[in-house]
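User: My advisor asked me to double-check a structure prediction for Two-component system, response regulator RegA before group meeting. I don't want to rely on an old file, so could you generate it fresh from this sequence?
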Amino acid sequence: MADQPEPKALTAPSGGDVTLLIVDDDAPLRNRLGRAMERRGFDVRLAESVEEGVGIARRERPAYAILDLRLSDGNGLDIVAALRDARSDARIIMLTGYGNIASAVAAVKAGVLDYLPKPADADAITAALLDHADALPPPPENPMSADRVRWEHIQRVYEQCDRNVSETARRLKMHRRTLQRILAKHAPRD
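Assistant: Sure, here is a fresh prediction for Two-component system, response regulator RegA from the sequence you gave:
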């Protein structure tokens, strides 16, 4: 079998505004993603908080943005409004390790183009930023199993209820003992 050339990585459009704001409170991820996006031709600005992200959005009016949903001082959706006020045509991608349908819907309603789970690679992010078609993205190579998605949802609600089993069970409309058995188990494999 002959070696096939690797597909060429997507790059920022030449000749246009390629300013990119990346806001994430995870410094290693933010810096690694910043370097990867610079290699793809973007003019990158980095921020670690909502306050810093809003300041850069208002001051520099970036054409593109990659935002983490949960930040140490608030929610990445707060930055979306500042970006839309500064530049209505900004292309915004939301990254999160805590994805759920409600936050995805809120992000899209606020003006986010795509909602990607962490860890997302730079090629997938670049494709989402530059894709101007309304087509659905290709299915993920290794999606989480239904059992894993259920387990992640239960864990998230449990944390949001301050680890209160009774309150979590009530909100999930689940028997308390059933929830306790689920919480005692390890996460299902993908």
